[in-house]
Amino acid sequence: MLCPLCGHRKRRRDCPALARTICPVCCGTKRLVEIPCPSDCGYLTSAREHPAAVVRRQQARDVTRVLPTIRHLTERQHQLFFLFHALIARHRPQGFARVVDSDVAQAAAVLAATFETASRGVIYEHTAQSPVANAIIGEIRTMLAQMREQGAKVYDGEVTIVLRAIEEGARATVLPGEGEAVYVELMGRLLQVQRQAEQAPASAKPAGALIIP
After folding, report:
1. Is residue 205 part of a domain?
2. CB-based burial of residue 80 (10 Å sphere; 0-12 exposed, 13-18 middle, 19+ buried)?
3. From CA 140, how far away is CA 11, in angstroms rounded?
4. Cβ–Cβ under 8 Å, residues 30 and 37
5. Are both 11 and 100 inside the same structural domain?
6. What is the pLDDT of residues 113-158, one digit of tens each?
7. Residue 213 domain-assigned?
8. How much is the average pLDDT of 25-40?
9. Angle at the Cα of 68 (from 82 to 202), degrees rounded to 5?
C-alpha cells in the first residue's frame, strides 16, 4: 500500500495524528508542519531527542541553499517569510493538483507586482497563470487582512521584499535536474525545525515582533 500523503512511497509508520499509516519520509518532512503531531508521538519524541546524522546534514544543506535569498531580511521580514511559507505548506489545491515550486514563484511574483504597482499610485490586480498560485495569493491576502485587524502593523513595502525573496528562492534555489517541488519540500523541512525550536523554552519575544494569528 502506498502512503496516502505522497502517493508513491510505501506505508511504514502508524501516524496517531492522522489515524493512518504513512511513509517515513512524509513522517519526517511533514511532522508539525502539515501533520498536527500529538506530544506523545514516539516518532516525534525520538526525532527531538536523537536527530539522525543524516537529518542534521540535510538541515545544514537546506540552510545553506536558502540563506542567500533571505540573508538581507530583517527580523520582522524573517517572521513574515516563514509565516507565508507555513500558509503555503498548509495549502491543499483542489482535485489531484499539488503545490510545486513554480506555483510558489508565480504567487510571490504576482502579488509583489501588485503591491509595487500600488506603491506608484496605480491600482491593478495582477493575476497568475496557475490556478494554484492564484489560490495562494488569495490566502496570503486574507492572512494579511486578519493580521491587520488584530493590530499588527504590516507594511506593503516589507511584504513586497519578503515576496520577492520567496520568488527568488523558488526560482534559484533548485538545481537543474531536480524535481518540481524541491523548494517546497526544503521549506517544509525548515518549518519543521522552526516549529520544534518554538516549542522549546524561549526568551521573551523581541520588540517589534509581529502579532501572528
Report:
1. no
2. buried
3. 33
4. no
5. no
6. 999 999 999 888 899 999 999 999 999 999 999 999 999 999 999 9
7. no
8. 85
9. 40
Q: Based on the structure, what is the number of domains in the chain?
A: 2
Q: Which grid coordinates belong to 64?
A: 545553506
Q: Please name every residue paired with 35 in a beta bridge, in sequence order, or none if there are none.
A: 31
Let me know: does 154 contact 148? Beta carbons within 8 Å. Answer: yes
> Residue 81 in contact with residue 166, Cβ under 8 Å?
yes
Question: Domain check: are 152 and 98 in the same one?
Answer: yes
Whether 210 contacts 79, CB under 8 Å: yes
> Residue 13 — φ and ψ, nearest 5°?
-120, 130
Question: 78 and 7 share a domain?
Answer: no
> Against a cut of 0.90, is the pTM above it?
no
Q: Are both 14 and 80 inside the same structural domain?
A: no
Name every residue whose Cβ is closer than 8 Å to that of residue 153 and which is 6 or more positions away in sequence: none
Residue numbers of the domain that contains 127? 65-196
Residue 98, phi then psi, degrees to nearest 5: -140, 160
CA distance 56 to 40: 23
Model confidence band, residue 29 (pLDDT cutoffs 50, 70, 90): confident
* 137 and 36 share one domain: no
Give the C-alpha separation, 78 to 63, whole Å. 14
- Do residue 44 and residue 72 come from a single domain? no
Pair (132, 168) in one structural domain: yes
- Asked if the structure places residue 95 within a domain, the reply is yes
First to last CA, the chain: 38
